[in-house]
Prior knowledge:
Blueprint: H1 27-34, H2 60-71, E1 76-79, E2 84-86, H3 87-103, E3 111-115, H4 120-132, E4 136-138, H5 145-154, E5 157-162, H6 167-177, E6 181-184, E7 198-200, H7 201-206, E8 223-226, E9 234-237, H8 240-243, H9 246-252, E10 262-264, H10 271-275, H11 277-281, E11 286-288, H12 294-303, E12 308-311, H13 313-320, H14 324-327, E13 337-340, H15 347-357, E14 361-367, E15 371-377, H16 378-383, E16 387-391, E17 395-400, E18 413-419, H17 431-436, E19 438-440, E20 443-444, E21 448-452, E22 458-463, E23 468-470, E24 473-475, H18 477-484, E25 490-500, E26 504-513, H19 520-528, E27 539-542, H20 556-562
Parallel strand pairs: 1-11, 3-4, 3-5, 4-8, 5-6, 6-7, 10-11, 10-12, 12-13, 13-14, 26-27
Antiparallel strand pairs: 1-2, 8-9, 14-15, 15-16, 16-22, 17-18, 18-20, 18-21, 19-20, 21-22, 23-24, 25-26
Helix pairs in contact: 2-3, 3-4, 5-6, 13-15
Amino acid sequence: MPFTRAACQVPCSNGRRPSRRCSTTCSTFAKVRNRSSFFRKARPFVPSQRSLGVTSCDPPVTRILRSTAVDRPTQVALSDLKGSLGWAELADLCERSVRAIDSLELSSSSRIAVVMRNSVDAALVFLMARYSGVELTALSYHLTPIELEYVFTDARVGAVFCDPTTVESVVVAATKVGITSVFLGDVATDTETLPQGVRSFRPWLNQFPSGPIDLMRRAAANLLYTSGTTGFPKGVLTPQNLSGSVDEYIAAYPEPRDAGPFLTVGPLYHAGPLGSLRRLTAGRPLIVMRHFDPVEALRAIEEHGVTGATFVPTHFLRLLQLDETERMKFDVSSLQFVDHTGSWCPPEVKRRMIEWFGPVLEERYGGTESGTICTIDSLEWLDHPGSVGRCSPRFTALVVDDDGNNLPRGSTGRLFFDDATGRGVVYQNDPEKTAAAHLRPGVFTLGDIGHVDDDGYVFITGRSADLIVSGGVNLYPAEIERVLLQVPGVADAAVVGAVDEEMGERAVAFIVPSVDDLSAAFVIDEAKKSLAGPKVPRDVRFIAELPRNPMGKIDRKQLKGRQR
């Protein structure tokens, strides 16, 4: 049925679907929320009385955590659908974690690194950094030892937290750069055999006392890494609205305690999923899926009465690829809010998701380096299909030509955003890249081409750089080419993006061979030794010569025409 602006989002006895602006006392919503027995019960835990103390001098975020622990000590706060923590146990561990971090005696310029797949322990490490005020860098678990070694040095990492799937690569890289504090989390038992020099995370944490402590002693921004055009990942200093000022976030985005569980399905090393932890610190239960599975995601929504979630368009595609009979087995009517980000969403995919989930989708456009710039909800999008929304009050969209001159509304050109705070974007240890991203101080670009309509809605029509976005992951051709050129038998190489129905885009490698028997399989296997999984091109094509312009630059447009 068609949706109207007065349409509601959860079926109720009145035949309406209550919107997010409806009263939270809605009886239907209460029934949906209360059906989740999983989030009303947790395994017994007897907390330290001191860990539940609430003092007036605590920062707001700490007060919320402790008061929630008092009100609902055994209710599940954090779950990965395999293990869970109740509110009291979470408060207890967070307080222990501050003393644990202090014991490492890290310098003020040092960071801790997290190289873990999604789990309760991974989320706990992120919370540990937040409450202790230590800066953190979240890294992809796909990174190779060579890439990790570079990042550990670039980010000045003093301690690393890993899991059984990443410990081998982490130990190799940590040993080379002299990091001695390596902790292994998400292990089956505390007695599991550990590699030399590695400590088990939970037993280490539990040896420290709990109890009230001066948490959040300073606001610490995260350092996240994106793929770098020079061949290695580039650090991005995240703005305060992403990670540092939790109390400001809570003031701007209040989380009612009866809002229901929130589900995040993407890797926590991405800014969007990582941001979902703020909901937990605001007193809202959080489910962190270990890995995305469309059926398991739908089952979690139904069984636990999930009311909010965050996805990327690739997740939508995989959900829609399920047979309709399979999809309709699950009740998703509890959903009140579903945000999506990471990459451009095909209009037909978004339209089908709105028809299925209801008008609960909200798109966020921005970048790791900027945070959210534009937002658009479902009903706005149906009126302005293809738009990524209007800018938040902090930003103003500008469209300029190649010389930096402003273009009139409706004209297509380079998209820049004027940041009212004057901050713009900052790249770690790369002043040249930081400068290149700015038209003038505080006015920056994410490298997109687009236009702004008369109503202020922003539309993205292309990318000014050669960036390939595959399943929400940024792939830079120069980084991949650097590795391909080191493969024996490769004389020249170029990488371009191709449209991919499932991932949005995929990397296609054009290779000029120097030997007759070079195979695509060999090139791919060699690339895997130095590139993280998502960066390895699965489509390798051989060519006699790469097209170049008179200046020697690769003609990527011509190559894109050849890959059709």
